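Pasting as-is:
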Amino acid sequence: MTEPISALIWVWYGADEKSKIESTFKLGNSLWQLALTPKEKNETIPDCMYCELTNQYFGRDTDFLEVCSGDVENGLVLIINEISRTLEDLPPEEAVCFSSTIFSHPGWLKVQELSSQALKIMNWAEISIYECELS
C-alpha cells in the first residue's frame, strides 16, 4: 500500500527531493482554489477567474504527475487526470473570460468536487501548514 502524502513529504524532505515537495504544494494550492464554492471563487479570485484558475492548474498537474505519480496512490493520479480532462473539455459557455456565473455550470461543479476529493486524498489540511517549512 502506498504511503499517504502526509508521510511522503517528510520522506522526500529527508531525501532532498525538493521537486516532489514543490510540485505537491503547487498542485495543492491550485486544487484548493478549484475546490472553492462558486461564491467563494467570486469573492477571492481577482481579474479573469477562468484564466486565473486554468492557468494556475495546467502545468502544475503535469509537473506533479511527472515527478510524483510513482509514489502516490493511483486514485489521486486518476482524479488529477479527470480534472485535467474536464477542464480541457469545458464547453464554450463554461470557458468564458471575466464571467462570474460559469462556476455554477456542470463542468465547473464536477471540477470542484474532484478537487475536493483530491485534497482529501492528499491530506491537504494536514500538510498545507508545513508549506513554508518544507519549501
